[in-house]
Amino acid sequence: xxxxxxxxxxxxxxxxIGGRSIxxxxxxxxxxxxxxxxxxxxxxxxxxxxxxxxGLEKAVYAYPSEHYGYxxxxxxxxxxxxxxxxxxxxxxxxxxxxxxxxxxxxxxxxKFPDCELRVTLPREPCYKFNAVMGFARASKLMAQSGFxxxxxxxxxxxxxxxxxxxxxxxGRRNVSIPALFAAKMSKxxx
Length: 190
What we know:
Layout: E1 2-9, E2 13-17, E3 20-24, E4 29-30, E5 35-38, E6 41-42, E7 60-64, H1 68-77, E8 94-97, E9 109-111, E10 116-122, H2 127-133, H3 138-145, E11 150-156, E12 158-160, E13 165-169, H4 177-185
Parallel strand pairs: 7-8
Antiparallel strand pairs: 1-4, 1-8, 1-13, 2-3, 5-6, 5-12, 7-11, 9-10, 9-13, 10-11
């Protein structure tokens, strides 16, 4: 069974990117206690740009823990001295183990003990992702690797806590997260 490794939230803050002060909430920090989950996401979590993050269809962002080794290696290859990445480093609210994008379809439901989250979309990388990863090619590497994670809508509000097991309930299986991500990223890979 798959497991919720870590739960993260974050407040919108200003960050220097390309000489500009940009508002972002990509910096997520682990939460030790149980977190309430409402239709617009986790209690204590913010999104800075609601045109691309947040809302009912992108209330929660999940990322597989299995990809962290890839990003640590990419940071080393980019010449960054400290390649360590704690959970939440990719901007995710939920760090998952045992569930990769290749096993996820739009409409699938992640059933936790006290809430249910429905898969909606893959995450699309942006310049803020490059900034937090520390190198300019990070977005392109996400597009090439397909290690994008996925957004979730809150189907049944409740609570979440790190360490919980969850079950994947298959949806209609019309489009997979990798297929949808590849279609969205085709322009970036040319």
